[in-house]
Design goal:
The chain is of the alpha+beta class and about 325 residues long. It has helices at about 5-15, 60-65, 85-95, 110-120, 140-145, 175, 180-210, 225-235, 255-265, 270-285, 290; strands spanning about 1-5, 20, 25-30, 30-35, 40, 45-50, 130-135, 155, 170, 245-250, 295-300, 305. It is about 40% helix and about 15% strand. The structure holds flavin-adenine dinucleotide.
């Protein structure tokens, strides 16, 4: 089944999407659940858009005027509003051909302009536009897949060597959620994992306090941090793929589109697909000319996938 573009807003709302106060950035949060023994876990990914470019092209006026061709009128294009990101990428693309004169493609035709950029695979002009997201409610197995994307991507991920205990949370797969036996086994397993993690932490701290050299800090300058890491890095060996691994992910339009195409596609793991689908919804909402070309599919497993005729620009 292929849904239409207008469904972006409807699906965003259906998934509980809302907007931030300051810049009206989209976000889709995920609820935190607890087992009877109070072990926290999430059933869905959460994505929060933190940053899009804030662009001021007014500083280019002198540069444009210096050509004596009226190029500075470029800055007074009121034919249609476009986003800051689109203005930056369009300026970058139009600088390549010095298309600043009266016959240039105006903002009213930005959609056509960017479709042409995508078709020509002139993706380097959209690399100037980058975004940052908070992504959570995703298991370590899924974030391992995400961080395989290297080019144009930036990551900061919760350290399992530094934190654990009270901030340890788990992620339940959709496949388990609706099956009473699988769900019960999942809850049981994470309760046991959390308990085993705490027990090993206590035993390791004991060994550290008893002066075990394998638990010693190797430097004086960061001794406190190192001692803590010595314990956590060993105790984390009991953690499963089901442990949550929140991260900040930065991407530019070109790399972000590639990751969406790879990971929100039918062949991707359902959990990473649902995550990148949410990322896609957020971007399609606030950057229609850069991400509006995707079509949404409802797949046989009832999750969402996207595809575009402008693949890997
Ligand atoms: C459905 C699916 C199944 C997968 N299964 C496996 C698996 O079984 N085992 C496994 O190890 N991985 C697997 N992967 C991961 C996959 O092989 C890639 O490592 C991952 O998707 C990152 O994508 P990318 O290579 O496009 O890298 P990105 O960092 O996203 O790079 C973007 C693009 O830049 C170019 N590029 C990047 N690095 C180089 C380079 N060194 N040299 C030349 N060009 C480069 C390529 O054109 C690349 O597509 C799977 C991915 C998917 C989506």
């Amino acid at each position: 089944v292929t849904e239409t573009r207008q469904d972006v807003q409807a699906l965003f709302e259906k998934l509980g999407g809302r907007f931030s106060d300051k810049f009206h950035y989209p976000m889709i949060h995920a609820a935190v659940h607890r087992t009877a023994r109070r072990t926290p876990y999430l059933k869905d990914p959460g994505v929060v858009l933190l940053k899009t470019p804030r662009v001021d092209l007014s500083g280019t006026r002198e540069f444009l005027a210096g050509y004596d061709q009226g190029f500075e009128n470029y800055l007074d294009d009121n034919t249609a509003p476009i986003t800051d990101s689109e203005a930056l990428a369009k300026f970058a693309g139009q600088l390549c051909y010095m298309s600043f004169g009266e016959n240039r493609t105006k903002n009213a035709d930005a959609a056509r302009y960017f479709d042409n950029i995508k078709e020509q695979r002139h993706g380097s002009v959209v690399e100037h536009v980058d975004y940052s997201f908070l992504i959570y409610g995703l298991g370590r197995d899924q974030t391992h897949e995400l961080v395989r994307h290297r080019v144009g991507m930036g990551y900061s991920q919760q350290s399992q060597r530094y934190v654990g205990g009270p901030v340890l949370r788990f992620v339940e797969r959709n496949e388990y959620e609706s099956d009473p036996e699988l769900h019960a086994r999942f809850e049981d397993y994470i309760d046991n994992t959390a308990a085993e993690y705490e027990l090993r932490t206590e035993l390791l701290v004991k060994r550290q306090l008893a002066g075990d050299p394998s638990m010693a800090a190797n430097s004086d300058s960061h001794a406190r941090t190192e001692l803590r890491k010595k314990v956590r890095q060993a105790a984390r060996s009991v953690l499963t793929n089901e442990v949550e691994a929140p991260l900040i992910v930065s991407m530019n339009v070109r790399s972000g589109r590639h990751v969406i195409e790879m990971r929100a596609a039918a062949a991707a793991d359902t959990a990473i697909r649902e995550t990148m689908f949410r990322v896609y919804l957020c971007l399609a909402l606030c950057e229609p000319n850069l991400f509006g070309d995707y079509e949404i599919d409802v797949l046989r497993d009832l999750s969402h996938g996207v595809r575009t005729r402008f693949s890997k620009i």
